[in-house]
Amino acid sequence: MPMEDLALSPQCGFASVLQGNAISWDDQRRKLELLVDTARKAWGTAA
Q1: Residue 33 phi/psi, 5° resolution?
Q2: pLDDT, tens digit, 9 for 90 and up, residues 32-42
């Protein structure tokens, strides 16, 4: 599958309401850092 047809979804694991998913601020930050790191490894940085 071509890279331009792939995407990462940051939504999974985050809830839209506080009661939906008890995740700490530190866990949220680590998850987003992993998402960014994965995207940079897959697609590089923006020009």
Answers
A1: -65, -40
A2: 899 899 999 98
Cα angle vertex 16, ends 14, 21, to 5°?
A: 50
- Phi then psi for 17, rounded to 5 degrees? -130, 150
Helix (H, G, I), strand (E, B) or coil at 26: helix
Query: What type of residue sits at position 1?
Result: M
- Regarding pTM above 0.85, the answer is no
**Phi, psi dihedral angles at 43 (to 5 degrees):** -120, -5
Rounded CA-CA distance 19/4 in Å is 36
